[in-house]
Amino acid sequence: MEEENKVTLHGTWFSPYAKRVELALKLKGIPFEYVEEDLKNKSPLLLKYNPVYKKVPVLVHNGKPIAESFCIIEYIDETWKNSPQLLPEDPYKRAKVRFWSSFIHQQLYEAMLTVMKAAGEAQGKAIKELLEKLQVLEEGMKDFFPNGTPSISNRNMGILEIMICSLLGPYKLQEEVIGIKIIGPEKTPLIFSWLTAINELPLVKELAPPQDKTVALLKFVRENALKSSSA
Amino acid sequence: MEEVKLLGTWASPFSYRVLWALKHKAIKYEYVEEDIFNKSELLLRCNPIHKKIPVLIHGGKPIAESIVILEYIEEIWPENPLLPQDPYERTMARFWIKFGEDKGPIFFNFFHTVGEEQVKATEEAKELLKIIEEYGLGEKEFFGGDKIGLTDIVYGWIACWLDAFAEAAGVKLLEADSFPQLQAWADRFKEVPLIKDNLPNHDKMLTYFKSRREKIIASATS
Fold first, then answer.
1. Bridge partners of A33?
2. Which of A119, A130, B3, B16 is the most exposed place for a label (fewest CB within 10 A)?
């Protein structure tokens, strides 16, 4: 591929942030080269492209690097204006999407990580907090899906779908590892049907890493965290 | 034009970000001072999830979270733009804005901690300042280039609030010899008429932060 218009994504197979960008690129049909990074042995190129965070994902377009998944996705949406449009046109709707993206990225993500890394009483407390935040999201999403059953396709996937998919797409596997159900048609009907619709898309299935690999990684993260907290 | 209302507080840098953006674009608005210890019904109704200021209400529609509000203002009122036109430059501005938001809580740890923890938190804050100075600002006059942009507005707290916070907490952070470029930027930023004419009273701020710091120390040592 020529340097002009060349797109490269530096990521790792397990990074939900890299997954977001991959999804965005594939949804828009943007050809790109993927580079798998080894985070224990970061390439000089990664460190050069992202000296601030030294993390994945990094998108390189026309030789210029961009880091931070939400920033990358906004850049993709503004540079490749073909459908699907990842952020809405209307400024007020955009503001709502930004607000909820931030909520999913900061609050939900952190709550989930805390549950993953805790046990006993601490986990009980963390689960309660996660479930409360899921309820807040459930209420908030009624604004986006007033008819109650989201119908998601490659043509209307947007940044909110990308955010929720990267965090909770593998919720069944996460539930397996933490031993508690967090998403379901009784407690979170809207989020449940939203995730089901998203997970059914061939593109999403194609990009999901192998289930056994994901479960092994989640178990590793959990065991590691429990070991160091009891050390 | 539809009515614009800003719910804020006099000492909050987040409040001022929105105020500066509105004034920069000469947007008429009504300012409502909130009491964070006695939040109004309006605030709780407009921001039920975080219950925080600032909140912008435009034609009756509420928007919360200062960065979300700033992007909204930029989109609705594109005159006197605060973000670059070029998509890559715009993305870089957003990257630094996000960096500030991500690291914000870590940054202010020095104010909320005592003893050993405070020493560590102060060092971490200095490391962040170094990154912002070296990679964010670089050799530029302002984060936005030769005039202020959204990134400058979002980092306004470094220029106008950090001193008072640090003094109240008994630490030194933005020292001119350690951060020459950032200090120079802070001095330039404070001289911009829009900013100079719209700042909280420094002494009032210091008194307020000192009283908050006393409460933090009291609960840490009780």
1. A8
2. B3
Nearest CA in chain B to A132: B49
Using a 10 angstrom Cβ sphere, with 0-12 exposed, 13-18 middle and 19 or more buried, the burial of residue A78 is: middle
Structure tokens at B83: 């973000």
Residue of chain B whose alpha carbon sits nearest to that of A78: B87
Which positions 144-183 of A are in contact with B (Cβ < 8 Å)?
A: none
Tell which of A5, A47, A48, A52 to mutate to test the B interface (max B CBs under 10 Å). A52
| Residue B21 clears pLDDT 80, i.e. is over it | yes
pLDDT tens-digit series, residues B83-133: 999 999 999 999 999 999 999 888 899 999 999 999 999 999 999 999 999
Sheet of B55-58: strand order equals B30-33, B4-8, B55-58, B61-64
User: Of the candidates B68, B131, B135, which has its C-beta nearest A95's C-beta?
Assistant: B68
Beta-bridged to residue B8, according to DSSP, are: B33
d(CA A12, CA A10): 7
- Distance from the Cα of A213 to chain B's closest Cα (Å) equals 29
B127 Cβ under 8 Å from any chain A Cβ: no
E-only strand ranges, chain A? 7-11, 33-36, 58-61, 64-67
A37 touches A61 (CB < 8 A): no
* CB nearest A91 (choices: B64, B72, B88): B72
Of B71, B88, B94, the CB nearest to A64: B88
Work out whether the CA dihedral B141, B142, B143, B144 comes out positive or negative. negative
Interface contact flag, A99 B63, Cβ < 8 Å = yes
- Record the pTM: 0.94
> For residues A113 and B92, what is the distance between their CA atoms, to the nearest angstrom?
28
Lookup: tokens for A160: 């909110």
Chain centre to alpha carbon of residue B205: 14
pLDDT in tens, chain A (231 residues): 445 689 999 999 999 999 999 999 999 999 999 999 999 999 999 999 999 999 999 999 999 999 999 999 999 999 999 999 999 999 999 999 999 999 999 999 999 999 999 999 999 999 999 999 999 999 999 999 998 889 999 999 999 999 999 999 999 999 999 999 999 999 999 999 999 999 999 999 999 999 999 999 999 999 999 998 776
